[in-house]
Design a protein that fits this description.
195 residues; alpha/beta; five-stranded mixed sheet; 15% strand; zinc
Length: 195
């Protein structure tokens, strides 16, 4: 905890003063341009990877960057998606998977999750990803297929479907490689994005 409190002190002393004007504007305006759905993994920091400022991204982080298909039941992920699209009017949605993902590794390698029943239940949202992956044990392939499956799941949300139909939002699937910093765009023809 000491590291965190020292970090807050450094932020208040060194960072905030240089960005005070930005934070003053952000206090009354919330207009992110992108909804970024990434993994909860602490090694994946959306703002760092994308070089964005506070206020640029509306971020949802879930284990395995999973996006449950739309359901009328109350759900924090669905509510955040709906708010970002319908209320904030984001123009782009990125689903970002990453190398060495613990959730995808557990699925690809068939880890025993009986000691983590809530995790096991959550990872059922990756069933379509597993069905799309060619071989068991291939974590990188499952990570990629999972990103694509989550994009399909995202499109089941009414706010997203309406925005897609109206040409108001674009979906992007990325895979971030932790050891190299490269980002592979699965939804665009062309080379990986350099770090």
């Amino acid at each position: 905890m000491r590291d965190l409190t020292e970090g807050v002190a450094r932020f208040q002393r060194d960072v905030f003063p240089a960005m005070a004007e930005l934070f003053a504007r952000l206090a009354t305006h919330h207009t992110p341009h992108t909804l970024f759905i990434g993994c909860s993994d602490a090694r994946v920091v959306p703002e760092l990877i994308t070089g964005t400022e506070p206020g640029d991204l509306f971020v949802i982080r879930t284990a395995g960057n999973l996006v449950p298909a739309y359901s009328p039941e109350a759900d924090g992920v669905a509510a955040s998606i709906e708010y970002a699209v319908a209320a904030l009017g984001v123009r782009d949605i990125v689903v970002c998977g990453h190398s060495a993902c613990g959730a995808m590794t557990a699925l690809a390698e068939g880890h025993d999750l009986s000691g983590a029943p809530t995790v096991a239940a959550w990872l059922r949202h990756a069933d379509a990803s597993r069905a799309r992956a060619a071989a068991d044990g291939d974590v990188p392939a499952l990570v990629r297929q999972n990103v694509l499956a989550q994009l399909a799941s995202l499109a089941t949300h009414p706010s997203v479907a309406r925005a897609l139909a109206g040409g108001k939002v674009a979906l992007h699937g990325w895979v971030y490689d932790i050891p190299t910093g490269r980002v592979e765009d699965l939804t665009a023809a062309g080379p990986a994005l350099a770090a």
